[in-house]
Amino acid sequence: xxxxxxxxxxIAVHLDRLLAERGMxxxxxxxxxxxxxxxxxxxxxxxxxAIRFTTLTKLCEVLDxxxxxxxxxxxxxxxx
Length: 80
Description:
Layout: E1 11-13, H1 15-22, H2 26-33, H3 37-44, H4 53-63, H5 67-70, E2 71-73
Antiparallel strand pairs: 1-2
């Protein structure tokens, strides 16, 4: 089975934690990153199928973090 055929994925998004640590709302982050609130919400809730490197770069700039602070590989998340 290819990754595209998988129902789930093994990537966890820690956007809630980073927003709380920085005292920032999702709306504020969306405005500063230049991404719609809907798309950022999809990412935050772990339902995104992809993320552009340009978006990841901007998120890291605004949140003052590394990609590994935002994303984690958690193999137990994959549905069989």
